[in-house]
Amino acid sequence: MTRSNQALPATQTSSLRPKHECGVCGIFNHHDASKLTYFGLYALQHRGQESAGIVASDGKQVRIHKEMGLVPDVFSEQTLQNLSGNLAIGHVRYSTTGASNLVNAQPLLVTHKGKTLAVAHNGNLVNSIKLRQDLEMQGSIFQTTMDSEVILHLIARSAGESLEDRLQETFTAVKGAFSMLLITQDTLIAVRDPNGFRPLCLGKLSNGGYIVASETCALDLVEAKYIRDIEPGEILICRDGQLNSIYPWPEQRTSFCIFEHVYFARPDSDIFGINVYETRKHMGRILAREHFVDGDFVMPFPDSGNYAAIGYSHESGIPLEFGVIRNHYVGRTFIQPTQTMRDFNVRVKLNPVHSFIKGKRVIIIEDSIIRGTTGKSRIQSLRNAGVKEVHMLVSCPPTRHACYYGIDFPSTKELIASNNEVKIIADYLGLDSLYYLSIEGMVEATGMTMNDFCLACFNADYPVAPDLSFHKNALDIG
Question: Of 271, 246, 269, whose CA–CA distance to 258 is shortest?
Fold first, then answer.
C-alpha cells in the first residue's frame, strides 16, 4: 500500500489504545442476584470503565442503580441491598462515539403499559439509524443517543401476542452485532446475533440458578460451572425456573470478532470455545516463525503484549525480559503536570529500567498498533534511555479498515495503517524495523478457520453491510 497525502497522526500524550466495548452479566434464579451480578461486572471491568449499572427484580418491582465510574465506586453494600430480587442484569460501558454521560449509561429501563423492561447491550446495530428515524416518524420519543434504545421501542410497539412473538419480531428487524440481556419483572432473556460477533456464555450457579456473561472469567469469580456459549442466532428465555430457546434466524456463517483474542478479552477467559491466554502465546510463536529478529531480549509493553511475547521468546530462543515497568497504582484521574513535563501521561504508567536496557537491542512484542501516537512516545522513552536498537513485532495484521460492530475505530482516518506502508509507520514510530503477523498466522493461532471470524478490520470483508451514514451519526453503541 502506498502512502497517501494524509498526514501521520500528531503525537499525543493520552492513551489511544483500542478501547473495549462493553460487558454484560445477568443472574437468574438466585436470592442474591444483584450481588452476584456485581461480582460478574467486577470481573468484566476491563470491557468498560466509564459507567456501570444493575437492574434487579423481585418478581413484582424492578429497581435500578447506575452511575458514571468503575464498578466498586458505583455500588456499595447498601445499594446492592436495595437491589433485591432473584433476577438481575448488569452492564459496564465504554462509549465509542457521542457523549459519555449518565443518560447513556446502561442498562436502559422503561415502563410501557404497566410492564417494565430493561436492556444491556454489547455490540452495535448497523441499521439503528434507519430504524430510529422510522420509529420517530411513528411518534416514538427517544431519551438517549444509544442504538440499544431502539430495541425497547421495537418491543413496545410489537403486536405479537406472546413475549416470544415480540422478541422474534424485534430481533429479526435489527442487524449487526448484539450480545444482549433483557429483564422483565419475572424473566431474563439473553440474545446473540446470528453471526455471533460478540461473546456470550451460560453458566450454572451452585444453588441451581444461572449466570449469563460476556466472558467466562465472570463465571469463575462466582464459582459457576460453564455450560456452553449462547449460540449465534439464539434467544434464551429464563422464566419460571426453566430455560427455553428460540432460533428466529436462518443459520448463517459465524463472524466471531477475532480482536477478542488479539486484545479485548481477559487472558483467563475462554472466548468462542478457545482459551485466550493460549491463543495469544500461539500468536507469538507463529510471529517468531514468520519474522525472526535477532536481539538481546524480547519484551512487551505491559500488559498488552505479555502473552504473545512469551510465545515469541519460547519459539525464537531469545530471552524474555521486562525492560519497562508498569505502575499499577495509577488512578483514572491525577493532577496534570506543567507543560514542561512532556509525555507525562505515558511515563506515569510505564517507565524503562534504564541501567538494564542501555546499549541493548530490544525486540518489542505488541498486540496491535491502532493510531500509533502512544507507541511513538513509548519508543522515544526507550531511545532516551539509551537503547541501541528497537524492533517491534505485532501479533496481529495491520488494522486498516473501520469497524461497524462495536470497536472504537469507526473511521479509517484514525488508523495509522490505513494509508501508510509499514516502512512509513516504522519511521514515524522511531523503530529500526517493524513486522506484523499475517492474517493466516493469526487465524492459525486460534485453531479455527478463516470462515469462522470477522476479519473486516484487516481485509474490509464486512459480514453485515453497515448503514452508510453510521460513521456520520452521533449515536452511541452498546
Answer: 271
The DSSP secondary-structure symbol of 85 reads B
Pair 279, 399 in one domain: yes
Task: Spell out the alpha helix ranges (H) of 222-372.
Answer: 259, 276-290, 306-316, 344-347, 354-357
The model's pTM is 0.90
Percent of the chain as helix, strand, coil, to the nearest 5: 30, 25, 45
Among candidate residues 22, 217, 403, 457, the one labeled active-site is 22
Residue 470, Cβ neighbours under 10 Å: how many? 21
DSSP label at residue 291: -
Per-residue pLDDT reduced to its tens digit, 349-369:
788 889 999 999 999 999 999
Separation CA 154–CA 146 (nearest Å): 14
Please give the residue range of the domain that contains residue 286: 275-454
The three grid cell numbers given for residue 53, joined into one nine-digit string:
449499572
Query: What are 6-43's pLDDT values in tens digits?
Result: 445 443 333 445 444 699 999 999 999 999 999 999 99
Assess whether 257 carries a catalytic annotation.
no
Coil, strand, or helix at residue 392? strand
332 and 222 both lie in a single domain: no
Q: Is residue 265 part of a domain?
A: no
Residue whose C-alpha cell reads 519484551 in the numeric block: 299
- Tell me: do 112 and 225 sit in the same domain: yes
d(CA 64, CA 83): 7
Q: What is the pLDDT of residues 431-465, one digit of tens each?
A: 999 999 999 999 999 999 999 999 999 999 999 98
